[in-house]
Sequence to fold (491 residues):
Amino acid sequence: MNKLKYIIGGILLLLAAGCEKDTEPTNFAPKLSTGEASEIYRVGATLSGSVQKSEGILVKECGILYSTIQSMAEYEEVKIAAEEAASFTVSLQNLTPGTTYYYCTYASSGRSIAKGEVKTFTTIANSAPLFNSLVLEAVDEQSITLSTTLKDEGGSEITVRGFCWKLSESDDEKEPTIADNMANVPLEQLVFTSKIKGLEPLKTYLVRAYAVNSIGVGYGETMTVQTKAATIPILAAITEVNSTPLSVTVESSVVSNGEMPIQEKGFCWSTENEEPTTAHIKKVVEGDDETFSLLIDELKPVTTYYIRAYATNALGTGYSETFTYETPLNFPDLDVTTVTEVKPTTAKAASVVISENGSEVTEKGFCLSKTVEEPTIENSKIVVPGTTAAYSVVLTNLESGTTYYIRSYATNSKGTGYGEVAEFTTAVDIGETIVSDITDTDTSASAEILTTSDHLAITEKGFCYSSANAVPTVPIQRRFLLSREMILQQI
Fold:
């Protein structure tokens, strides 16, 4: 009896405990929404979803689950950051063509997982090629440079690909097709790029990528591009190619002709204006090459020159940035030496110091040699005193019938400058002419060649005479020639 009492009492205690009020759970599942699939192609699709959570709801991860099994007993997951869970899209890739997939939004607290509505999509078995985004690489007055990549070749070999374009003439313009203009691109390039040329300045064009496979023609997104307006030419900065103390060779190039023919190009310079124009000193460079150069010479020493390249089209003249060239102090410049009054043993030489080039001349004269064709002061020099620019000297003690090389020189603090080399040959030395056996109609004459030098071969010898000129010469008076063996001629 006592045992029964104990059993009944235990049951009552259990019933009392079961009648206590339930406590509310501290975490509720978030509200999940599964969006429709979009951008479905052979091996991919774009899926969307949203996770709405209120205060106190814990979401550690969320995203999309997808599977080829309708029950989704096995699945793949695409995670997104929990803080981006409000609304999101994911791109699925590497799917199987022509296959049905099931997917849903999910959220997990770490202990449990909640799933949204399960939806479905089917990848395409085969299709025309698909493209990723079109990128505008460059645009100028007459060309557009574009690039893109293939998103999917469509399941069969691509035979042709490239870009197609057309001029936009209205707001409701149809998209360009291969029936319009095309620029093909080699099939080997993973990222293919093309520069579409021959466009008009300041015009709007519609352009998109295309590719052809066995299914058909696939097109990328259409881009609207406006070419730049025609302008005056644009030139590159000048570079120095070569220089001497009083000359410089400069080079530039036409970066853009402004989409109009170049009518003239060259260089202009000034010693006063830091931005010279063609109104200053200029020199035209002929030819159609984009890169062109010019030797600017006969510069003044210790002078700053401002130089700019220029090019002109129908709209005007464009200039490069200013290039500055400073000529240094230099040795003197001299004129060519002139030689006159050449006799068997003497001659007169003259020259001029054209410029001292910023430093006073301390010595000047001539260099003379029988063997050195460009004599210097190290060979032989004849100093001429005085301070005048023009100077001369009588050369003495020369050898008759001999060739000499001579040039002027002048020295200043920077060094010695030389004029151009002159060459002269002294006259043959002939002894006194002896006339004998004079009659009414003839006479005898004789003379001796005194020159013993081997430098000059005698090519002609004889006598010249005149009844009117007291000093007859060969060009205008009558003459008789002698052979090399003869020293006497009857006349």
Observations:
- The first strand starts at residue 31 and ends at 34.
